[in-house]
Structure formats: structure tokens, C-alpha cells
Amino acid sequence: MRFRVTLLILIFSLLPGKAQKYLHYLQAPGFENRIVHYIDTIRIIDTHEHLISPEMLKDSYFLDFSLLFMQNGYDDLVSAGMPDTLFNTIFNRQLDPVSKWNIIEPYWNNSFNTSFNRLILQSTARLYGINELNESTVGPLSEKIRKAYGTDWFDRIIRDSCRIHYFIKDGNNMPGKDGFARYEKRFDDWLTIRSKYRIDSLAVSQLDPIYSLDDFVKSLETAFEKELKNGMIAVKIFSSYYRTLLFEKTSADAAKKVFKTLVNGEEDFKISMKEAKPLQDYMLFKLLDLVRKYDKPVAIHTGIQAGKGKILGDSDPELLTGLFIDYPDVKFVLYHGSYPYGGEVSALAKNYRNVYIDMNWVYMVSPTYSERFFNEWLEMVPVTRITAFGGDCMVVENVYSELISAKRIISKVLINKVREGYITEHEAMVIAKMIFHDNAAKLYKLN
Ligand SMILES: [Zn+2]
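That is the input. Now the predicted structure with zinc ion docked in place:
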């Protein structure tokens, strides 16, 4: 026995050292540039956006430099101490660019370092030729923005500059953009239900009374089928902004009890999210039954929530494990690389064939995290279950800027993997095409 062990040690010690790590492929010189250039030729399926239509922007008070702060940049100004009561002053009132800048500047000076804000600077530099935000640049920048929106700027950025084949909008269809816009729908009216008012409003909008739990389930089915007719391609679950992602199987009796408490209340009667949980959980399972019946993917907000004051633990993707088991035929798409739960999502996607990792927004949240975990996911997860791009933005300038970062990070990781001999140059290109286009095309049935 001892002899056999010694022999094995001897055999392994004679093998070439490098073979212990990976298969080592010979790389043809110049593979770095070829990978970068190839990625630039890929048409992109952008899996998640909140884009405001250019027509709406033209009628707004933020068709100036503040446009670029919509959502993410604004959140970091607030995180840097700006009172969020200033939202209306910046976005909903007539105010000249310099006066707006005077409000923003102290908080910009505290937060110019964040990746949200670096991406804004990348937008202004690449698209408008302005490298700095200050009192003397915000006026000319605003002028350039207004001029751009007098043209077909929105379409040109999406189609020509970003080469986006389709983008999936959170919410509803975008009139006039049928050539490249699709949409996913939230069913929050049912999943975050906790007031009598909401039930009554649903009944009024659907012209169908809701007296019982069965009526309430029926109203969900009606809404779902209406969205299918309108072209909904996926369902979006946004619950972790309001409550835990732990949805537990609940009996009809427990759900009925909560429902009765609500409908028997006064007009403005409300209960807490915790008290409403049995009813909300019950409705989530009803929604998943519909999703399974009509074979639509379910996109779920996991990880860090936008804005302030949310409970991070509510968004932990591990809380969804029971659903992955109960609905093996439903495709669950975990958004935002589940920041900061990158390791957890890796293990979940490896263990459950119906779990997909979607990297939308994550380059904006943290480029370093994106790079670190894309590396790990490539080692852990079948590549067919990774989708690499979605901006999660309200304006095209920020989509453009985030796509530049996404391509830079994905290229860097793939090039390193080729350099290490983990994959070949050809495989790097195959992976890039899958994660930027083909996987999403298949998942969302987009041709
Ligand atoms: Zn979003």
C-alpha cells in the first residue's frame, strides 16, 4: 500500500507543472485586440431598462444636464447628503442649469468618485465632448442635450451607437419603438397587497367586483392575460423593495383570513406587510402558476435596492430557493448579479437548472464586483445561463456609457481567461456572443 502511494506521488510529480492548473492552449499573438473588436461587432440584447420616451423628455423640466442624474446619479447625491426633498426642485421645476448646478455641486463634490457618477462623466465626455461638470460646463452641456433631442438621438444611440437589437423595458410598451422595444410587467397590485383601497381600485379598473379571494385570483388572471395580449415577454418581481423575498407556501384558508380582514375594513384600511404576508405569498404562487402555464421567464430584483433606506437582507437570492425547487420548469432570472450576493448566486445557478444570472446594472453598481464575479460565474455556471447586459437606466446616454463599461469588463475577463489557458480565443468569442445576445434571445424568445 505504502509503495503504491509513493508510486502515485512519483507519477504526479513527473507531470508538467502547468498541466495541474488548466489545459494550456497556444494563443496566436494579437488575440486581445481580436476579442475586443469582435465584442464590438455583436448586436446586443439589453435585458432591462426604464427608458423614458424622448417625447416625454421633451416636455419635461429636466431636458438639460440633470437628465444624466435621473435615478442613479441622483441616488448618490442623496447618499452624499443632499436632502431628497430637492428632487422636485431639480427635476420638476423650471430652473436654469447653473442654478441647478449650484444645488447639486456640494453633493457632487462629495460623491464624484462613485461608479454611478463616473459613468455620468463618461457619458458627457463620449457623447457631448465635455469632460468635467462645473458651473461653466453645465450650460453648454445642457444646450447640446436639447439640440440632440431635437433629432432622432434616442434611436441613433440605441441602434447605431449601442447596436442594441432589442431592449426589455420594465413596465409597458414604448409607442413608436416596436422595432426594438419589448416589455416585462410587474404584478405588484397582488404581490404587495395590504390595503382595501388597492382591492377596490382593481375592481374599478377591471369593471369586475372583487368580493372573495377567488375573485382576487381571477383579477390577477385577467390582468396577466391582458398583458400577454399586449405583448408582455416576461414577469418582473420587485417585492424586495417592500418586503422579504421569502415566499412561503400558504393555505387558502390563511390567505382568505387576511383577505377578509382587508375587505371588511374601512375605505382607507391598511395592514402591515408582515400581516399581509400570507395573502401576498399565496398570490405569488398563483402568479407562478400562470407563468408556468404560459411559459414566461420571471425576472426578480435581487441584491442591493436603488435609493436609500431599504433592507438589504430582504433581497438575498437564497430566500428564493424554495421556489426554484417547487417550479423546476419556470426560468428564474436573478437581476443585478445579486450584488453583494455574488457567491450565493453562483452556487444557486450551479445547483438549480432553472436559475439564470443577469448582469444588468451591476457594472454601474461596481465595476470591480462585476469583474470579480463574472470570473467566478464563468468557472461555476453553464454559460447558457448568464446574460451580460442591461443598463437599468432612464436615459440612453447612461445606457451607452454603461455598455462601454460592460464591454470593457467582459473583454478583460475573457482575455485573461485566454491568457491563462482556461479557454481558447475562439471560445472567448463564442461566450461573448452567447452572453451579450444569444442567451437572452433564447430565454425571451426574441428573434
Ligand atoms: Zn430596474
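Confidence is low (pLDDT under 50) at residues 5-20.
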